[in-house]
Write a structure and sequence with these properties.
Blueprint: E1 6-17, E2 20-31, E3 35-39, H1 46-52, E4 63-71, E5 74-75, H2 82-88, E6 89-92, H3 103-113, H4 119-132, H5 136-139, H6 152-164, E7 170-174, H7 182-195, E8 200-204, H8 208-214, E9 217-222, E10 225-231, H9 232-237, H10 242-248
Parallel strand pairs: 3-8, 3-9, 6-7, 7-8
Antiparallel strand pairs: 1-2, 1-4, 4-5, 9-10
Helix pairs in contact: 3-4, 3-6, 4-6
This protein binds adenosine-5'-triphosphate (ATP) and magnesium ion.
């Protein structure tokens, strides 16, 4: 059964790349309108798990997935329209990846794919999305310029605006600030704090301070499994598992 707070839950999720098992029996419930952080050493399956939540792994050759992933009450690995799924569950990547087109067209791209043609509606969506991504003031006079001319931090906020433009319910972020300077990082963190009023946010980060600053709950991954999951305060102050403690105190990983 779905509890009121639960937005996504997985049951016994296994994932293999060829013969290599990257996820082992992952069962977790992710809360609505909260920020959940995934932490753990390199190669432990964080990105893989994040990508299973909007079926990005479907594109990989030789991938085998079993178990269930529910968005609200629907299993996204059963009959499910992928375009609809990607609209509801958006993703922001480690490296900002704007399309090589204008700032305006980057934001309007998704809504256009979903059939919106009206210029005035698109104008509204572009303005609102850029405002929600805290980028509007910096770009409002250069909307027709190529997005690749923005700074890295601006490009990342543009990518967040692009996701917001299709009004998702869940935003997946895979190390969204690892390529950014401290000031741009803080801007994105402030933004995440704002966004969680309306969106369910799941973020992978290697930065323990960042996880502590922005997340409500934290899951610690090791070798494809979730070792420990709970409130961020608890995970960072009184972890139950020795391996979690070793990781967050920097003794390994
Ligand atoms: N497309 C792929 N094909 C084959 N193996 C893969 C593929 N993507 C990931 N893997 C393997 O799956 C395991 C988990 O990788 P994943 O990228 O999920 O780790 P991660 O926790 O995100 O690591 P990092 O912190 O370095 O980003 C690793 O052993 C990796 O080599
Ligand atoms: Mg990764």
């Amino acid at each position: 059964m779905k509890s009121d707070l639960q937005k996504i839950h997985t049951q016994n999720l296994d994932l293999f790349y060829g013969d290599t098992q990257a996820l082992k029996d992952v069962s977790i419930s992710l809360e609505e309108k909260k920020v959940t952080a995934f932490i753990g050493p390199s190669g432990c399956g964080k990105s893989t798990f994040l990508k299973t939540l909007n079926r990005m792994n479907d594109l990989v050759d030789n991938v085998k997935i079993s178990g269930k992933v529910f968005l609200d009450n629907l299993n996204i690995y059963e009959k499910y329209d992928i375009v609809e799924l990607r609209k509801r569950v958006g993703m922001v990547f480690q490296k900002p990846n704007p399309f090589p087109m204008s700032i305006y067209d980057n934001i309007a791209y998704g809504p256009r794919v979903h059939g919106i043609k009206s210029k005035s509606i698109l104008n509204e969506i572009v303005e609102k999305s850029l405002k929600n991504a805290a980028l509007w003031d910096e770009v409002k006079d250069r909307l027709k310029q190529n997005a690749l001319g923005l700074s890295g931090g601006q490009q990342q906020r543009l990518c967040i605006a692009r996701v917001l433009a299709v009004e998702p319910e869940v935003v997946l972020m895979d190390e969204p600030t690892s390529a950014l300077d401290p000031l741009s990082t803080l801007k994105i963190e402030d933004l995440i704090n704002e966004l969680k009023k309306n969106y369910t946010i799941i973020i992978v980060t290697h930065n323990m301070q960042q996880a502590g600053r922005i997340s409500d709950k934290t899951a610690f991954f090791l070798l494809g499994e979730i070792v420990e999951y709970g409130s961020t305060d608890k995970i960072f102050s009184v972890p139950e598992d020795k391996r979690t403690e070793d990781y967050i105190t920097g003794r390994f990983g």
